[in-house]
């Protein structure tokens, strides 16, 4: 019986043959199994693919258990005011989002699994830098083991859904992955682990390719999804929703920007310090220099509500967004 293999299968097979790592071969085999026609003519091929996949997974797992210090390719140090890390299925548009809002060298292609390691970039909300991280895609059957640590260390998770192609199926894959690792807040998930580390992360849904989706798709997806997510429409083709998405991420970071001013000089309005809301003048001093903070005597504030410009404030003065602070040390 003929196999009648599809163009998508041959693309995945070509990718498998050109793969340079076992991790990449695993992803390619996953894709081959996903797109191969399922009938008697492909029974032996599918069995062979599953056998290859099992061997590769075993090899990768055993290699990770053997001695020797290994570099964690999924460790992405935080930069800027906060970090947004994307999660999504193959070809959902993650790389297109990163390319649209930053200058990161992402690989935007029509071929799945083009992203194999985290790709960080910096996006701007006004004068504030926010880090955005493209990640390898996940499937119902596979996600790189070390990738979960990237999500555990970030500030916000962005579920990227191509709303022009089976959005509910994509959502189920992403939420199942995040829930299985206790990254989504709900009544069944503790907010902290035994060591007091925060588990669940703020999560948004970035709906890509809205210019190609039928009207009402996002509303239908929201109704069919059990969780109460916030949905942000986005089109890399038209630019729709770009600025709104970045602005909303800044709001969710829950930070304030503060401009430092040296006595007798103009404030530096180009690179603000970003601190958590509720931070004080003393917290700002520690952010600038820990040793100097111990010598902090007083401060003056501008552009703050309920006080006059240049007024003296206490160390405990709570900072507000776009405030200008002049620190005085002993």
From TrEMBL:
Residues 84-178 form the G domain. SUPFAM superfamilies: P-loop containing nucleoside triphosphate hydrolases (SSF52540), TGS-like (SSF81271). Pfam families: MMR_HSR1, TGS. InterPro entries: Beta-grasp_dom_sf, DRG, GTP-bd, P-loop_NTPase, TGS, TGS-like. It comes from the Bacteria. One of its GO terms (molecular function) is GTP binding. Residues 256-327 form the TGS domain. Coiled coil: none annotated. PANTHER family: DEVELOPMENTALLY-REGULATED GTP-BINDING PROTEIN 2 (PTHR43127). This is GTP-binding protein obg. The gene is obg_1.
């Amino acid at each position: 019986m003929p196999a009648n293999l599809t163009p998508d299968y041959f693309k995945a097979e070509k990718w498998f043959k050109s793969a340079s790592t076992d991790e990449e071969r695993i992803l390619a085999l996953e894709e081959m199994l996903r797109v191969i026609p399922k009938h008697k003519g492909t029974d032996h091929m599918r069995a062979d693919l599953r056998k290859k996949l099992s061997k590769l997974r075993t090899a990768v797992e055993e290699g990770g258990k053997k001695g020797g210090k290994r570099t964690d390719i999924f460790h992405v140090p935080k930069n800027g005011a906060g970090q947004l890390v994307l999660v999504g299925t193959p070809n959902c548009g993650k790389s297109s989002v990163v390319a649209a809002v930053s200058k990161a060298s992402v690989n935007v292609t029509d071929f799945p699994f083009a992203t194999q390691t985290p790709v960080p970039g910096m996006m701007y909300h006004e004068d504030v830098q926010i880090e955005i991280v493209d990640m390898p895609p996940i499937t119902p059957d596979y996600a790189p083991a070390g990738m979960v640590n990237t999500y555990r260390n970030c500030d916000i998770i962005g579920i990227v859904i191509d709303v022009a192609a089976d959005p509910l199926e994509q959502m189920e894959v992403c939420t199942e992955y995040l829930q299985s690792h206790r990254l989504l807040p709900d009544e069944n998930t503790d907010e902290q682990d035994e060591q007091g580390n925060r588990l669940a992360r703020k999560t948004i849904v970035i709906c890509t390719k809205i210019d190609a989706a039928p009207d009402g798709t996002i509303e239908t997806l929201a109704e069919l999804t059990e969780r109460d997510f916030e949905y942000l429409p986005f089109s890399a083709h038209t630019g729709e929703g770009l600025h709104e998405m970045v602005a909303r991420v800044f709001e969710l970071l829950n930070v304030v920007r503060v401009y430092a001013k040296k006595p007798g000089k103009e404030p530096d309005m180009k690179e603000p310090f970003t601190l958590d809301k509720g931070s004080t003048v003393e917290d700002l001093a520690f952010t600038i220099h820990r040793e100097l903070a111990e010598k902090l005597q007083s401060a003056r504030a501008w552009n703050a509500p309920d006080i006059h410009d240049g007024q003296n404030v206490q160390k405990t003065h709570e900072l507000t967004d776009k405030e200008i602070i002049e620190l005085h040390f002993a």
